[in-house]
Amino acid sequence: MSIQIEPISLFKSLSDNIRLSILLLLQAEEELCVCEFSEALDEIQPKISRNLALLKKVGLVVNRRQGQWIYYSINKQLPQWATQVLLETYSGNREHIAAPLAKLNKIGANKDRPMILCKGSSK
Protein backbone atom coordinates (compact mmCIF):
# COMPACT_ATOMS: atom_id res chain seq x y z
CA MET A 1 0.00 0.00 0.00
CA SER A 2 1.36 3.41 -0.92
CA ILE A 3 1.02 6.69 0.93
CA GLN A 4 -0.61 9.78 -0.53
CA ILE A 5 1.76 12.50 -1.64
CA GLU A 6 0.87 15.62 -3.57
CA PRO A 7 2.97 16.29 -6.68
CA ILE A 8 3.58 19.87 -5.54
CA SER A 9 5.06 18.57 -2.26
CA LEU A 10 7.50 16.33 -4.09
CA PHE A 11 8.59 19.00 -6.53
CA LYS A 12 8.92 21.66 -3.82
CA SER A 13 11.16 19.23 -1.95
CA LEU A 14 13.30 18.69 -5.03
CA SER A 15 13.59 22.45 -5.65
CA ASP A 16 15.81 22.99 -2.58
CA ASN A 17 19.47 22.09 -3.09
CA ILE A 18 19.95 20.52 0.36
CA ARG A 19 16.77 18.43 0.16
CA LEU A 20 17.59 17.38 -3.41
CA SER A 21 21.08 16.37 -2.31
CA ILE A 22 19.69 14.43 0.65
CA LEU A 23 17.30 12.49 -1.59
CA LEU A 24 20.00 11.77 -4.18
CA LEU A 25 22.41 10.61 -1.47
CA LEU A 26 19.70 8.31 -0.13
CA GLN A 27 19.16 6.89 -3.61
CA ALA A 28 22.88 6.14 -3.79
CA GLU A 29 23.48 4.90 -0.23
CA GLU A 30 19.98 3.70 0.79
CA GLU A 31 20.36 4.80 4.41
CA LEU A 32 22.34 7.56 6.14
CA CYS A 33 22.42 9.31 9.50
CA VAL A 34 22.43 13.06 10.10
CA CYS A 35 26.17 13.27 10.71
CA GLU A 36 26.84 11.62 7.33
CA PHE A 37 24.67 14.19 5.55
CA SER A 38 26.34 16.99 7.49
CA GLU A 39 29.81 15.79 6.51
CA ALA A 40 28.97 15.05 2.88
CA LEU A 41 27.16 18.34 2.27
CA ASP A 42 29.34 20.48 4.55
CA GLU A 43 26.29 21.82 6.37
CA ILE A 44 25.59 22.20 10.07
CA GLN A 45 23.57 19.49 11.78
CA PRO A 46 20.55 21.71 12.64
CA LYS A 47 20.15 22.69 8.97
CA ILE A 48 20.32 19.04 7.88
CA SER A 49 17.87 18.01 10.61
CA ARG A 50 15.42 20.75 9.64
CA ASN A 51 15.46 19.62 6.01
CA LEU A 52 15.10 15.96 6.98
CA ALA A 53 12.10 16.90 9.13
CA LEU A 54 10.49 18.60 6.13
CA LEU A 55 11.12 15.54 3.94
CA LYS A 56 9.69 13.30 6.64
CA LYS A 57 6.60 15.49 7.06
CA VAL A 58 5.90 15.24 3.32
CA GLY A 59 6.39 11.47 3.53
CA LEU A 60 9.44 11.20 1.29
CA VAL A 61 11.73 9.82 3.97
CA VAL A 62 11.33 7.62 7.03
CA ASN A 63 13.68 7.07 9.92
CA ARG A 64 14.65 4.38 12.36
CA ARG A 65 16.67 4.49 15.54
CA GLN A 66 19.61 2.18 16.11
CA GLY A 67 21.34 2.87 19.39
CA GLN A 68 22.19 6.54 19.58
CA TRP A 69 21.82 7.17 15.85
CA ILE A 70 18.78 7.87 13.70
CA TYR A 71 19.02 6.58 10.16
CA TYR A 72 17.01 7.99 7.26
CA SER A 73 15.91 6.28 4.07
CA ILE A 74 13.51 6.92 1.22
CA ASN A 75 10.00 5.86 2.12
CA LYS A 76 9.29 2.51 0.48
CA GLN A 77 5.55 3.32 0.61
CA LEU A 78 5.80 6.13 -1.95
CA PRO A 79 3.44 5.87 -4.90
CA GLN A 80 5.02 4.46 -8.05
CA TRP A 81 5.02 7.81 -9.86
CA ALA A 82 6.97 9.48 -7.00
CA THR A 83 9.46 6.62 -6.81
CA GLN A 84 9.97 6.90 -10.56
CA VAL A 85 10.56 10.67 -10.35
CA LEU A 86 13.22 10.13 -7.67
CA LEU A 87 14.91 7.33 -9.63
CA GLU A 88 14.97 9.35 -12.86
CA THR A 89 16.25 12.42 -11.03
CA TYR A 90 19.05 10.35 -9.52
CA SER A 91 19.89 8.62 -12.82
CA GLY A 92 20.17 11.91 -14.68
CA ASN A 93 22.01 13.86 -11.97
CA ARG A 94 24.58 11.62 -10.32
CA GLU A 95 27.23 14.30 -10.80
CA HIS A 96 25.25 16.47 -8.35
CA ILE A 97 26.35 14.19 -5.50
CA ALA A 98 29.63 12.85 -6.89
CA ALA A 99 31.79 14.99 -4.59
CA PRO A 100 29.69 14.38 -1.45
CA LEU A 101 29.70 10.63 -2.14
CA ALA A 102 33.46 10.62 -2.70
CA LYS A 103 33.87 12.46 0.59
CA LEU A 104 31.81 9.82 2.42
CA ASN A 105 33.54 6.90 0.73
CA LYS A 106 36.93 8.30 1.68
CA ILE A 107 35.89 8.13 5.35
CA GLY A 108 34.93 4.48 5.18
CA ALA A 109 32.19 1.96 4.52
CA ASN A 110 28.58 3.01 5.03
CA LYS A 111 28.17 0.88 8.16
CA ASP A 112 31.33 2.31 9.81
CA ARG A 113 30.85 6.01 9.13
CA PRO A 114 28.44 6.88 11.97
CA MET A 115 30.93 5.61 14.55
CA ILE A 116 33.66 7.71 12.93
CA LEU A 117 31.66 10.88 12.19
CA CYS A 118 29.09 11.12 14.95
CA LYS A 119 31.36 10.90 17.99
CA GLY A 120 31.07 14.36 19.50
CA SER A 121 30.41 15.89 16.11
CA SER A 122 30.54 19.67 16.32
CA LYS A 123 28.77 20.31 13.04
UniProtKB/TrEMBL annotation:
A biological-process GO annotation: response to arsenic-containing substance
CDD domains (UniProt xref): HTH_ARSR
Tell me which residues make up the HTH arsR-type domain.
Answer: 1-93
Which PROSITE patterns has this protein been placed in? HTH_ARSR_2
- InterPro entries in the record, alphabetically? ArsR-like_HTH, HTH_ArsR_DNA-bd_dom, HTH_MetalResp_TranReg, WH-like_DNA-bd_sf, WH_DNA-bd_sf
Organism's domain of life? Bacteria
Keyword set, alphabetical order: Arsenical resistance, DNA-binding, Transcription, Transcription regulation
A Gene Ontology molecular function term for this protein is:
DNA binding
NCBIfam families reported in the protein's UniProt record: HTH_metalloreg, PRK10141.1
UniProt-recorded name of the protein: Regulatory protein, ArsR
